[in-house]
Amino acid sequence: MNDYTEDNLVEQPAIKIFQDQLGYSFINGFNEKFTGQLDLSDEKQPQGGKRGAKAV
Predict the structure, then answer these.
(1) Which neighbouring-strand residues pair with 54?
(2) Pick from 19, 15, 22, 13: which is nearest to 56 by CA?
(3) For the chain, what are the domain ranges?
(4) Does residue 40 come out as left (phi exceeding 0), alpha (psi in the -120 to 50 range) or beta?
(5) pTM for this prediction
(6) Contact present, 26 and 18 (Cβ < 8 Å)
């Protein structure tokens, strides 16, 4: 497998910065199906958790 991919060089380092330095949660929404409702909402986060979970 090629190590020089957009995922390895751009996406994963960016996700790590958002998690480690900025305190964001990571949710992989790649396989989410559109149901008319936002399934990646903060309402699924436990009380007291960080707001602003980002889908990547």
Answers:
(1) 26
(2) 15
(3) 1-32+51-56
(4) alpha
(5) 0.53
(6) yes
DSSP string, 6-46: HIIIIIHHHHHHHHHTT---EE--TTPPP-SS-TT-GGGSP
Residue 48 DSSP code: T
Residue 22 CB burial class (10 angstroms; 0-12, 13-18, ≥19): exposed
Radius of gyration of the chain (CA): 14
CA-based nearest residue to 51, from 30, 16, 22, 14:
22
* Two tokens, residue 33: 């199906």
pLDDT in tens, 2-44: 899 999 999 999 999 999 999 999 888 888 787 777 666 555 5
